[in-house]
């Protein structure tokens, strides 16, 4: 039994309101992500683009969330903020009970390294490095010794069934394989959240299914997964769907029938 | 990121772009090459001057009393005119200086010049003729391998005897035994009575072309037509006694020439120090000249490396974005590029060292300049190489480190 079955009946809107209300207060440890009034604006030569206009969101540990919305609604901007690649203009962001929205560059680098695994639409692998070395990178910046690094990177590659491609360079791999290497890299440092911004956007439909299976298996084993997607059938894999529109949350629904769909 | 990881990464980059790296390194390579070559040659020269030259040419604990200094770098026209006006030195002056020398100091009159020496067996050739006294052999530690030196009696008698170096033996007598045979110096016949031990050469100048005769013989007139004396060499048992001798000589000469206090000496008392000072000056000039070129090379090298690193940062913006997204701190990126730049230039320096050593070797083989490698110069070249890399890398590396991860990732 999943720990969430009790909550299934609860409305996510009510939940959110409860968690997100008290600005400045530290949220319960069980909420891995809490954002309060998150804003991000871009100054385009005098014209202000409001990409996010105050996003309140709370995500529990072990949740599998899909983020949807039309193009330009702020999905990537939001992912970059919770991935600590970017900092908000206003609002709070708590990650695993830690306020990260006010951290400096180096602290954010540490959070990205330890807490976050990011999977990109364009894979973002180092072209000249082998699959194994690509997967090792987060461990290099975590200061882990070469032998342990290799072992853990190999382990992560095995999880995505690419242990037999460890010495291949990205250009010697198919798109699906590249994305699996990227997933292995995102997982290798055992992050508390796995973020994916349109991970299947560059893949054909069969390969997309393959990659979605990987995410689904990870979610089943208890990995917190947040994924941006345009496609409803991909979002259908997730247990909760958040829709953004014009930089605000338009809807936030947990699927009642989700557990039955998984056959639990 | 660990240091070795960064070096490995840098080597990888260099391996991938061999040709580009080579051109990047050219400046540093040439700079270091010249540096090593020049330092080796200067070092070899000064080793030689300090160890061999002073003892062989000047003599240990000696000073020379003469009309004008022998080792005087950069003589000005005014100085030269003053030298010309100086009174000549005559036998009476020499005797006076000799009379005030401390006990234990030995001395010898020396008139020397290059004069043609000839025999009936060979073409005339120039010899370094030294017209002197019997004590000269002791002062200069000259050993006789066959025959003998001339004696004080022969000097007072004006005997036309001669002691010659091995070069003269070979050239003028060939296979013949020169002892007892005639050697003409400036046309005047001398009888060979001794042969000097082979001494080798200093800066390509053979010391075995010496021909030593009593100063009382007619050759002195050829060297000093006015009948004055060229110089007197004085040797003390110790440095201190020699210094005493110099002071006494100065005092008595200033007295006899009525020089008021404040007026400079109108004669020269030279020690090996003045010769060494002369060479020190020469050495400094060589180092200034010899390091200006490498310095330019290194500056150019630094600029090239900086440029290449800026290009590398621009080309690898996405890589930097990826690394930052995976948790690389500013310092990680900074050190990655700094280490890359200095690995590049240290490799350039290492190649430059090898080339410089080879160049020094070639110079010492083809010219009389001896070359000796100074170990410190190799260390310095490596440090300099790393320094050039770091200096050249700072700006590009800090630009890389400051990149915004999202903007960097977005770059194609
Ligand atoms: N670096 C930027 N500079 C200026 N404006 C930006 C920047 N990044 C995003 N924006 C703007 O912010 C808004 C949200 O962009 P964002 O990339 O988050 O949208 P998205 O929901 O991910 O869209 P898509 O589905 O097309 O990927 C857009 O209007 C976009 O033009
Ligand atoms: Mg997007």
Describe this structure as you would to a colleague.
The complex is a heterodimer of chains A (264) and B (412). Chain A has 264 residues and is an alpha/beta fold. Chain A has helices spanning 12-20, 75-82, 105-115, 131-141, 146-159, 175-187, 205-220, 232-235, 258-261; strands at 31-44, 47-60, 64-68, 90-95, 98-99, 116-119, 193-197, 224-228, 240-245, 248-254. In chain A, helix 4 crosses helix 5 and helix 4 (131-141) packs parallel to helix 6 (175-187). Residues 1-9 and 258-264 of chain A have low confidence and may be disordered. With 412 residues, chain B is of the alpha+beta class. Chain B has helices at 3-16, 18-58, 77-85, 91-99, 136-139, 152-157, 166-173, 219-223, 239-256, 272-315, 317-325, 330-366, 375-402, 405-410; strands spanning 62-66, 106-118, 125-132, 144-147, 161-164, 182-185, 188-196, 201-202, 205-206, 210-214, 231-235, 268-271. Chain B has a 6-stranded mixed β-barrel with strand order 2-3-10-5-7-6. In chain B, strand 6 and strand 7 form a beta hairpin. The mean pLDDT of chain B is 87. The chains are: A alpha/beta (264), B alpha+beta (412). Chains A and B meet through helix 3 and helix 4 of A and helix 1, helix 11, helix 12 and helix 14 of B. The structure holds adenosine-5'-triphosphate and magnesium ion (MG). Adenosine-5'-triphosphate (ATP) binds at residues 42, 44, 49, 51, 69, 71-77 of chain A.
């Amino acid at each position: 039994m999943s720990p969430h079955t009790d909550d299934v009946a609860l409305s996510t809107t009510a939940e959110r309101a409860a968690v997100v209300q008290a600005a400045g207060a530290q949220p319960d440890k069980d909420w891995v992500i809490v954002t309060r009034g998150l804003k991000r604006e871009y100054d385009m030569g005098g014209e202000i683009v409001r990409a996010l206009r105050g996003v309140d969101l709370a995500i529990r540990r072990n949740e599998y969330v899909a983020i949807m919305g039309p193009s330009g609604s702020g999905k990537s901007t939001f992912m970059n903020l919770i991935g600590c690649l970017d900092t908000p203009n206003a609002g709070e962001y708590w990650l695993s009970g830690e306020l990260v929205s006010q951290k400096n560059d180096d602290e954010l680098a540490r959070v990205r390294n330890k807490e976050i695994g990011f999977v990109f639409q364009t894979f973002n692998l180092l072209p000249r490095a082998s699959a194994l070395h690509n997967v090792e990178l987060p461990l290099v910046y975590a200061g882990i010794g070469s032998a342990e690094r290799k072992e853990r990177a190999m382990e992560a590659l095995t999880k995505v069934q690419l242990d037999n491609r460890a010495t291949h360079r990205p250009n010697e791999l198919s798109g699906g394989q590249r994305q699996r290497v990227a997933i292995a890299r995102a997982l290798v440092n055992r992050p508390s959240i796995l973020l994916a911004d349109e991970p299947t956007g560059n893949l054909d439909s069969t390969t997309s299914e393959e990659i979605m299976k990987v995410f689904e298996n990870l979610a089943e084993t208890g990995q917190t997964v947040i994924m941006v997607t345009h496609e409803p059938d991909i979002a259908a894999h997730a247990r909760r769907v958040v829709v953004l529109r014009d930089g605000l949350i338009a809807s936030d629904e947990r699927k009642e029938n989700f557990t039955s769909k998984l056959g639990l | 990121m660990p240091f070795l990881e960064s070096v490995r990464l840098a080597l990888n980059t260099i391996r991938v772009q061999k040709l580009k790296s080579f051109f990047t390194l050219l400046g540093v390579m040439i700079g270091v090459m010249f540096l090593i070559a020049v330092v080796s040659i200067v070092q070899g020269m000064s080793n030689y001057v300090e160890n061999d030259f002073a003892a062989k040419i000047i003599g240990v604990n000696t000073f020379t009393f003469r009309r004008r200094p022998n080792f005087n770098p950069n003589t000005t026209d005014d100085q030269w005119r003053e030298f010309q006006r100086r009174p000549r030195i005559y036998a009476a002056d020499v005797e006076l200086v000799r009379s005030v020398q401390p006990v234990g100091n030995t001395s010898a009159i020396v008139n020397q010049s290059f004069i043609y020496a000839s025999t009936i067996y060979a073409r005339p050739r120039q010899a370094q003729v030294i017209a002197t006294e019997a004590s000269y052999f002791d002062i200069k530690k000259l050993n006789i391998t066959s025959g003998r030196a001339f004696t004080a009696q022969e000097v007072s008698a004006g005997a036309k005897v001669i002691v010659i170096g091995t070069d003269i033996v070979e050239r003028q007598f060939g296979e013949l035994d020169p002892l007892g045979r005639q050697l003409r110096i400036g046309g005047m016949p001398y009888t060979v009575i001794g042969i000097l031990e082979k001494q080798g050469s200093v800066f390509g100048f053979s010391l075995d072309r010496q021909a030593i005769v009593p100063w009382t013989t007619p050759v002195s007139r050829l060297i000093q037509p006015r009948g004055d004396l060229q110089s007197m060499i004085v040797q003390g048992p110790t440095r201190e006694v020699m210094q005493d001798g110099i002071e006494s000589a100065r005092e008595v000469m200033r007295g006899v020439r009525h020089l008021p206090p404040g007026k400079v000496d109108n004669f020269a008392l030279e020690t090996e120090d003045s010769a060494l000072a002369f060479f020190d000056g020469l050495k400094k000039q060589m180092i200034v000249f010899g390091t200006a070129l490498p310095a330019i090379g290194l500056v150019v090298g630094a600029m090239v490396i900086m440029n290449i690193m800026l290009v590398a940062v621009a080309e690898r913006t996405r890589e930097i974005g990826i690394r930052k997204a995976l948790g690389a701190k500013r310092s990680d990126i900074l050190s990655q590029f700094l280490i890359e730049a200095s690995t590049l230039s240290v490799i350039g320096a290492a190649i430059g060292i090898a080339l410089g050593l080879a160049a020094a070797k070639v110079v010492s083989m083809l010219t009389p300049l001896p070359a000796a490698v100074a170990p410190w110069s190799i260390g310095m070249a490596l440090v300099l190489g790393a320094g050039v890399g770091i200096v050249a890398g700072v700006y590009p590396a800090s630009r890389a480190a400051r990149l915004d991860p999202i903007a960097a990732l977005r770059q194609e």
